[in-house]
Amino acid sequence: MLSINTNVGAMAALQSLNQTQQQLMQVQSAINSGLKVANAKDNGAVYAIAQNMRGNVAGYAAVSDSLNRGVSTVDVAISAGQSISDLLNELKGKALAAADTSLDTASRNALNADFTALRDQITTIVQNASFNGTNLVDGSSANFQALASADGTKKITATSENLALSGAIVTMNSTSSISTQSKASTMVSTINSSIQNVNAALAKLASGSKKFSIQATFVSKLVDTLNAGIGNLVDADMAVESAKLQSLQVKQQLGVQALSIANSAPSITLSLFR
Predict the structure, then answer these.
(1) Are residues 228 and 243 in the same domain?
(2) Which structural domain range is residue 177 located in?
(3) Distances (CA, A) of 22 to 201, 241, 246, 247, 257
(4) Is residue 69 assigned to a domain?
(5) Are residues 206 and 178 in the same domain?
(6) Running along the chain, 274 residues long, what does each successive block of 10 average in pLDDT?
(7) Contact, 118 vs 87, CB < 8 A?
């Protein structure tokens, strides 16, 4: 039927052209953004999954920061412990020398002066062994907890070790001296005990640092895996999108031609009245 009011062919051609145009816009969006799922309209289910995974990635970034702070805090404590262990070894040498019964008073006084300076250095090290306001060797902190999961429910703990003078680990006090042969002999035993205690404390601190480091490495790998998973879900394959673009551009041109032909059909009606 020839009609000037209703052109079914033009309607069909226009619908097809509009559909092609819509697909073309989606492909252009994917090429511009690099994402085949850039928003919920593209694919609601995939977008929701990707957003949840992005939330986990953001959470693990905070976890990584927390673990790195933990590693640094414990490493500062370990450095302090190692320095204290070295000082105790030096103190032991001074005490042994002062315990010699044949030593004259002047020599013993000189050794005691050195001993006192080294002893006080332990306090200085302990007081300055802080990282980000946390000191694990002065007895002020019970432990250090770092985040281990993206939801904040799981944590890793490193226990503190009190390396201050007069404690359970370093048993010598702030007035300890080797001013006499008797004091020096007694101090050798005290220092030996302290050395063993400090080395045991260092082993515990090192264990805590290792826990943080292992978890930090795992989190880093996990974040890489999550990012790869997000990419698999939402990233556009540029080779595929390029092929689609060329195909749709040709289809668009053909659609325009088809619409033009359909629109010219009513003009045939004029030939009936000539």
Answers:
(1) no
(2) 74-233
(3) 68, 14, 14, 14, 18
(4) no
(5) yes
(6) 68 82 76 81 90 93 94 95 97 95 91 96 96 92 88 91 94 94 94 96 94 94 94 84 80 80 71 66
(7) yes
Residue 63 lies in a domain: no
Question: What type of residue sits at position 120?
Answer: D
23 lies in the same domain as 143: no
